[in-house]
Design brief:
186 residues, alpha/beta, Rossmann fold
Length: 186
């Protein structure tokens, strides 16, 4: 799932004690879960299923435990992706991952604005939700897509906070503060 070390370093800069692991026992002992990713949706889903971690992520979210999805870690939360598919996702949130279209360069690589802040994007596919009540940030690149979603203890972003300088660290710090609050489920 790509970019693991850079995400861990950014989380540490934001105040976390980040551990990179694929061990289920280690994940279950964690207070919060960050799932970053770059790559192909179907391969990611296959890898999660092969390790039994698709169910782990679903249970984590059903229990209301703090989750941060980054890029592909956001996309897998939705019903499906048309990337080399259709391919089924985790169906935690309603919507589809579709290729960016329009008279724009794809992949979308570079800085774009979300809620008045600039974040770094690097993607060819994006989330088009069936229900936008949980979308807390939008971006337009050819067409408007969900750049940030929040529902309960779940936060997910299409952009890369670990590559977004001060704005990215501030977002990670805010997520950590919320995730570590006494009200957050464990």
């Amino acid at each position: 799932m790509g970019n693991l070390r850079s995400v861990a370093k950014a989380l540490e800069a934001a105040g976390a004690n980040a551990v990179v692991t694929s061990a289920t026992s280690e994940v279950l002992r964690s207070e919060a879960l960050c799932v970053p990713g770059q790559g192909i949706f179907g391969r990611c889903m296959d890898n999660l299923a092969a390790a039994g971690q698709d169910g782990l992520v679903r249970r984590w979210l059903e229990d209301g435990r703090p989750y941060l999805g980054i890029c592909l870690g956001m996309q897998i939360l939705f019903d499906s992706s048309e990337e080399r598919g259709p391919v089924a996702g985790l169906s935690v949130l309603p919507g589809e991952v579709q290729r960016l279209r329009g008279d724009v360069r794809v992949p979308h690589m570079g800085w774009s604005e979300v809620n008045g802040e600039h974040f770094y994007f690097d993607h060819s596919f994006a989330v088009f939700p069936a229900d936008d009540s949980f979308v807390t940030g939008w971006c337009t690149h050819g067409r408007r897509f969900a750049a940030m979603v929040n529902r309960g203890s779940l936060t997910a972003v299409q952009f890369h906070p670990e590559k977004s300088g001060a704005a990215g660290i501030a977002l990670l710090r805010a997520w950590l503060t919320n995730a570590m609050s006494p009200a957050a489920p464990r």
